[in-house]
Design brief:
The protein is α+β, with helices and mostly antiparallel strands. It has a single domain (4-136), classed as START domain (Alpha-D-Glucose-1,6-Bisphosphate, Chain A, domain 4, 2-Layer Sandwich). The protein is built from three helices and seven strands. A seven-stranded antiparallel beta sheet has the order 1-7-6-5-4-3-2. β4 (52-61) and β5 (65-74) form a beta hairpin. The termini are far apart.
């Protein structure tokens, strides 16, 4: 089955898109701890309404690609809380006539997954926030909130 994908094109260079992707607090979530600037870096976030995750950077090709691996995740809003575990996300960056095309894919987030509908909406919002960061200089990351009930960190 096809994994979730979202795309956007912005009037920015591939290097600017790459730099924005690695600034995860600016577009993804304000509650992120850790960094995503080098291969091997890991970051986490805890939020009441969305997945809580520990994600490791597995690939960085400046101006071309960013890849992450989900080492641990807790999805509070579905019964199979670990549905994201061992999935990965890629950001493929391609120059085109209108600037730069970004293709985000959450490999393993497929329509047969319990969180697909909610998670695909969430990722769409995050990718739009990344686009806003690139076009206006200010993203719309998920605001900080308390840890979900029942989560080991909460």
């Amino acid at each position: 089955m096809n994994s979730f994908t979202a795309e956007l094109t912005v009037d920015r260079t591939p290097e600017e898109v790459f730099a924005a992707i690695t600034d995860v607090r600016a577009w993804f979530s304000e509650s992120i701890t850790g960094v995503a600037k080098a291969v091997g870096d890991a970051f986490s976030f805890i939020d009441k309404s969305i997945p809580t995750s520990r994600i490791r950077v597995t690939e960085l090709v400046p101006g071309r690609r960013v890849a992450w691996h989900v080492e641990d995740a807790y999805l509070a809003f579905i019964d199979q809380h670990d549905e994201w575990n061992d999935t990965r996300m890629t950001f493929d960056i391609t120059p085109d006539a209108d600037g730069t095309r970004l293709r985000f894919t959450h490999h393993g987030l497929t329509p047969d997954r319990a969180c697909y509908q909610d998670c695909s909406r969430g990722w769409t919002s995050c990718v739009q926030s990344l686009g806003t960061l690139l076009t206006t200089g200010t993203g719309e990351p998920i605001p900080k909130s308390a840890a979900p009930e029942g989560h080991p960190a909460g």
